[in-house]
Design a protein that fits this description.
Tetracycline Repressor, domain 2; elongated; single chain; Arc Repressor Mutant, subunit A
Length: 207
């Protein structure tokens, strides 16, 4: 019996493609997507215009890859957090700590997904759809951990915790980051304490 042909390895992106995305990621987040032109990205990446169009074809494709890249970063980070944490509660508390750390960065400019959504009013635009998919995944991540903790209403609590995160990121950038992180910490602690208390009461009732 003939051996099956080997499965080809995934092709690594070229150095030029990665450099273009790295520059775009930095500029889009710091200054806004529509504000930054392709010529500037090309110049700072040190590539030719022909190389840019060979790698991405259009600015829209680069923008979408920027959103997908940010989404991958979040998913990989939270998946790693969940894997290394000792409990769902620890996972969520680590997430809250990470949000607080984000707000204290000198280059913090708010949530990249909310910022991008504000620049694309059409809900059917591929960028908006990618943002919606990211937020759906994030909400499901929160809900699954809250459910594992024993929260009586994990879906509602996940929505509340996500809203707290959005508010802290927006308020922390536009206003006082210390006040925003303090409010986030208090409200998140209440949600997680509710879950822990409900789980303890449920275990007591079953004993």
């Amino acid at each position: 019996m003939a051996a099956e042909p080997p499965i080809p390895a995934a092709r690594r992106p070229s150095a030029a493609k990665l450099r273009l995305l790295e520059v775009a990621d930095r500029l889009f987040y710091a200054e806004g997507i529509h504000t930054v032109g392709i010529d500037r990205i090309i110049a700072e990446a040190g590539v030719t215009k022909a190389t840019f169009y060979k790698q991405y074809g259009s600015k829209d494709a680069l923008i979408l890859e920027y959103i997908h890249g940010r989404d991958r970063q979040v998913r990989e980070s939270l998946t790693e957090t969940a894997f290394t944490s000792t409990s769902p509660e620890s996972t969520l508390r680590t997430l809250v700590d990470a949000i607080v750390a984000d707000l204290s960065r000198r280059d913090f400019r708010g949530c990249p997904f909310l910022n991008a959504a504000a620049e694309f009013s059409d809900e059917n635009h591929p960028v908006r759809r990618a943002i919606s998919e990211h937020r759906d995944w994030f909400t499901e991540f929160l809900e699954s951990n809250l459910q594992a903790m024993g929260h009586p209403h994990p879906g509602a609590a996940a929505d509340e915790l996500y809203l707290l995160r959005d508010g802290a990121m927006g308020g922390g950038y536009a206003g006082d980051p210390i006040a925003a992180t303090s409010a986030l910490g208090r409200a998140a602690d209440r949600i997680l304490s509710d879950a822990a208390r409900a789980a303890a009461e449920n275990n007591g009732a079953q004993a």
